[in-house]
Design goal:
By secondary structure, this protein is mainly α. It has a domain at about 1-75 and about 300-320: Topoisomerase I, Chain A, domain 4 (Orthogonal Bundle), CATH 1.10.132.50. The protein is built from 16 helices and no strands. It has helices at about 5-15, 20-30, 35-40, 55-75, 75-100, 115-125, 135-145, 150-170, 175-200, 205-210, 220-230, 230-235, 245-255, 260-275, 280-305, 310-315. The longest helix is centred in the C-terminal third of the chain and has 26 residues, at about 280-305. It is globular and about 55 Å long. The protein starts with 5 loop residues before the first helix and ends in a 6-residue tail after the last helix.
Length: about 325
Amino acid sequence: MKSLFLFANGRVSALEKDLLPPRMWQMLLSARDVEEAGRLLADTWYGRFLQGGNFENCFEQAAQAIEQELMELSEDPALVRGILHRRDVRNARYIWKAALSGHPSPVETERPGLIPLDVLRSALTDSEPAPELPALMSRSLEEIRSLQELSPAAIDSVMDRLAAAMEMEELPGMYPGFASFLAARMDILNFGIAARCRLAGMDRTASEQLLLEGGTRKPAEIAQAASSGALPALISDTVELESLGSVLRDAIAEKSFLEYSRESERILLGMLDTGAFAVFGPAPLAAFVIKKEYEISHLRILLAAKAARLERSRLLRRLPRG
């Protein structure tokens, strides 16, 4: 498998140069307004997609270009499935939640990943599981149908577990370093959920039901720590997340998770940048795709903040850049 990725990994090395360097992020953060930020962005890789100042269309086309690279370069079908099925799960959430909650149609969706939107819609009424649906999605749909109360929160809980399971089924097997990244990301998500559950006064059992499998810490362990007030201590003792102990303690005390989100993403970006993956194989390609996803997400935040004339200091509280 590794030898098959010789060309792909060479191409990824070239693509890495299209990622915005720290100096460009500093310039974007210091831009006076959204117009200046747009002019700066036009001189980067994104300039080829930026027409008429339509940033959202630019980012949509940029995401499509990256996915096209993924499909052309990847010799591992599990990688393509693992990346693109995430959008299928999001679309399934939008469609199934809206239909089962009585939301008027049409509902806004994203571009299909590997599953057509019509298949997701028809799966709700078909008596037999659609053969185009992965087994995990079919089981989650059956779980939703069996819910005693079809509340949006209950549906979200099932879909959260599905999103985690789909990603952890396809991607971790590529390389141990990438598996560590995914596990750390799951731990970060679970600690954040558990902290919010504690603030909401939820008991241990209810908290544990909301936590997801796939991290280095078991849901029961995190739920117990939340119940006993030991979440900061537990995350401080978790590999890769040691620096988040005081951050999570402050988040719980201040009832604000902005700093926690920023520092968590900083850690995850660092893990993607350390080169802790094999030189050849699918992991570098997966890491590049996810880095681009983070970059586009952070650009959306930055440009929205510039449009709202948000102060630079407040923007820095949210972005793990600069």
